[in-house]
Amino acid sequence: MAIENFSPFINCIFEQLKRNLPGEDVQYKMAPYRQRLDKSAIAAMNPRHSGVLMLLYEKNNNWFTVFTQRKKYAGVHSGQMSFPGGKLEAGDENLIATSLRETEEEVGIPQKKVEILGLLSELYIPPSNFLVQPVVGYLKESIPFKAQENEVEKIVEIPLSFFKNDNNIKQIKMQLGNSMYTTVPAFVYQEHIIWGATAIVLSEFREVCKLAGV
Fold first, then answer.
1. How many CA atoms lie within 13 A of 149 on its CB side?
2. Domain coverage including residue 109
3. Band of pLDDT at residue 128, cut at 50, 70 and 90
4. What DSSP string describes 105-122?
5. Number of folded domains in the chain?
6. CATH number for 157
7. Which tens digit of pLDDT belongs to each residue from 45-88?
8. Beta pairing partners, 40
């Protein structure tokens, strides 16, 4: 990928993602559960594979990323805030392709308009038995988002600077799946609560930014 025409911020992220990732120690700062499973234990669960895209783009001289608020349904992730993404399907070459396809379906960004910068550490989600691969991408053009009517209740754009501020991390009482309520770490932006797997991905990305000096 030619990166000479990219902004200094994007170049720094691109270069940092080529290095060793911060991994579990940083991820678990925002985890709603503390039990860690090694790779063999996760493999024994026969998890479903999925890919999500953290899309970076510049708007009004600030850097943003985009989330979807899921519609309410009979499932463990009903109504939650998440990155665009979904499960691996037979026609997907890999999980990067999955994340791009799902992003186009959910928020209307053409796959060919996204430059892939790299991958973050995968994470396992016990309630839904998904093993998720987060992908980081860059949208150079300004393209309007369009929500998929069947799955997406709302598209939410949040500046990256919000996630760099520790004061925006709160302890919130949430329900874990169908179990009892418990207190979890979350990013609270206006009326939106970002917790669970999405917050875990953001926790590692925060550290990537720190290591990159941006």
1. 0
2. 8-161+197-212
3. confident
4. HHH---GGGEEEEEE---
5. 1
6. 3.90.79.10
7. 888 999 999 999 999 999 999 999 988 755 554 578 999 999 99
8. none
- Positive or negative: CA dihedral 109, 110, 114, 120: positive
Task: Report yes or no: 129 and 48 within 8 Å, Cβ to Cβ.
Answer: yes
Asked if residue 173 is part of any domain, the answer here is: no
- Residue 86, domain member (yes or no): yes
DSSP 100: H
Residue 184's identity, in one-letter code, is V
E strands along 48-142, which residues?
A: 48-59, 62-70, 81-82, 85-87, 114-119, 123-125, 130-139
CA-based angle 128:100:111, to the nearest 5?
160
The two structure tokens encoding residue 206: 């925060």
**Residue located via tokens 């093993």:** 131
In a domain, 13, yes or no: yes
Structure tokens, 72:
């309410």
189 located within any domain: no
CA 10 to chain centre: 17
